[in-house]
User: Fold this.
Amino acid sequence: MNRIALGAVSALLLAGAGFFWWQGRAEVERGAPPPDLSGSHAEAPLELPSADSHGRGPGLPDLKTKKRPKQSPEERRFNRFDRNRDGKITRVEMLSTRVKAFQKLDTNHDNLLTFEEWAVKTSERFKAVDRDGDGIVTRDELNAFYAAQEAAKAQRAQAKAMQCSCSSAPSAEEED
Assistant:
């Protein structure tokens, strides 16, 4: 009699555990995006650029003479995420903009961000903002930090512009 009761209790426990596992799995899958069942991107033929028999294709557009149409801030924001310019933003396109930021945080490059890696970077950033080292960030310290970042960004842009203008200037050998 004890074996029958023990078997029945074990069967109920296994059934209950299976039910809770099944419900937990359903809850996780409910938050996931639906799968792409159209198969359009997997079966689409690869489009190759056209070229003549000598392997020369159409020339690149001249960006200096061709003016780009004025875009609204919403269009620029959308185009920043729409990498392939198909008018749709996929999950991969949306997340691709954060890859560099993730790689900066992932110091051991194992594609897993641990709390320790995140905490080290966060504390380093806090120390950079906290100029006087008192453990408190004031509004003035934060404004000074952002002003220094903007100045460094402007300096890099100016150095890049100078580098571009120097490389496009004709050398003495080309003038002869």
